[in-house]
Amino acid sequence: MWETINYYLHNGPVKAEIIESVLMVVGILLLRAVILQAHFRSHPTMEIEDKRRWVVATRNITLIMVIFGLAIIWAAQIQTLALSMFAVAAAIVLATKELIMCLSGSLLRSMTKQYSVGDYIEVNGLRGRVVDINLFNTLMMQIGPNQLIGQLSGKTISFPNSLLLSYSVQRDNVLGSFVVHTFEISVPIHLDSDKIVPVLENVLQKKCAPYIKVIEKYLEEVQLEKLFITPAAHPRISRVPFDDKVYNLVVRFASPVSKRLEVQQAVLDAFIRVQYRLMNHNGGQEEAHGHDKPVMPV
Length: 298
Hints:
The structure is a single chain. The termini are far apart. The strands form two sheets. A five-stranded antiparallel β-sheet has the order 4-3-2-1-5. The chain has a three-stranded antiparallel β-sheet with strand order 6-8-7, with helices on one face. The radius of gyration is 40 Å and the shape is elongated. The protein has three domains: 1-104, no CATH class; 119-171; 178-283, Alpha-Beta Plaits, CATH 3.30.70. With 298 residues, it is an alpha+beta fold. Helix 6 packs antiparallel against helix 7 (260-291). The protein contains seven helices and eight strands. Residues 103-140 form the Mechanosensitive ion channel MscS domain.
């Protein structure tokens, strides 16, 4: 008889796991009912609240036992299903890796408030003003193409938000409507910086003078509100050695965002004029020395 039952369980239309699961659930429910009835009969004066606690406790224990028993009975099938689901999940992750990274970058940008629409940013050499942001990419109007040109080129640049996970973001207008701007000018080593820097400083002071007091007050308010050290508002030009052919002038100034290009271009124009005068002055001196030579009679 047992051989017949065993054969039916393994080869019949109904799988053995289903029958075992049904018997296990029925057995646990009967056991719970017997235990509750026996306990209530042995404690006839038990309060309603205590009986309710026993019912709830035995129900939760029964549920745990059923789940544990089903897990044991269906262990082989669960393992096969888990492996299949893991393979499918791995395939989905590999196929959508870039999309997941873009979503992660978008989440990072939202949480850290790195930039928003209207900000001037630079990411991995891409410079521009942000015009649109979605879950997958950022669209901005290109600035440049030359590093010293801060005007819009008329072209758009779109980059995936996954770049935010790998590269740092430089934001120009972190101080709101004002900006502390820095750029470099490469100067031929034979040109005297003492004849160049005073001229550029004069131009820089004239251009920045109307805004210095307003910017200083604004930076003090930002420092008190956000509790971080703000840069100085006064313009400055520093001289930095580079190599045996050129040295760099590092120009730094504070201005309204809308005026920074005007100030920068004024300094560049002044430098070009001074450089032209100095280089032609040297050439003119050499030419003048050439005319001083005595002319031999024929």
